[in-house]
Design brief:
By secondary structure, the chain is mainly α. It is 74% helix and 0% strand. It has four helices and no strands. The termini are far apart.
Length: 117
């Protein structure tokens, strides 16, 4: 007898556009070729924290709790974006890939800003 996995749509964060864009951002960060190991690791850590905080916020009940956790996610997004920008400054990532990454970051920032009240 095999167990059936529940549909993903039953989790609160899957209904958020911000979560889906954050996953897209994470996929892009994962494929971004940053040669500086320290900046690569920082971009990934901050991106992971951003995605996880969005999911956590979706599961919170009170508006104040949600806003606080979404604000943390926004801070982590800004940190990830800064690491990517530094990679471009230090010529440790391709400029065209960085530009696309930063466009995704701005889109996600706009979505998160609407969730913070």
């Amino acid at each position: 007898m095999t167990k059936t996995q529940p549909p993903l749509s039953t989790l609160p964060h899957h209904s958020l556009i911000a979560y889906r864009v954050a996953i897209e951002f994470a996929e892009h960060i994962g494929s971004l070729r940053i040669s500086d190991a320290r900046l690569r690791e920082q971009a990934r850590k901050s991106t992971i924290a951003c995605v996880l905080n969005i999911a956590e916020g979706a599961g919170r009940r009170s508006r104040a709790d949600k806003s606080r956790v979404y604000a943390i996610a926004l801070g982590e997004l800004c940190e990830a974006a800064a690491a990517v920008e530094l990679a471009r400054v230090f010529k440790s990532a391709p400029a065209e890939e960085v530009t696309h990454t930063l466009r995704l970051a701005v889109r996600l920032k706009d979505l998160l800003s609407r969730l913070i009240r």
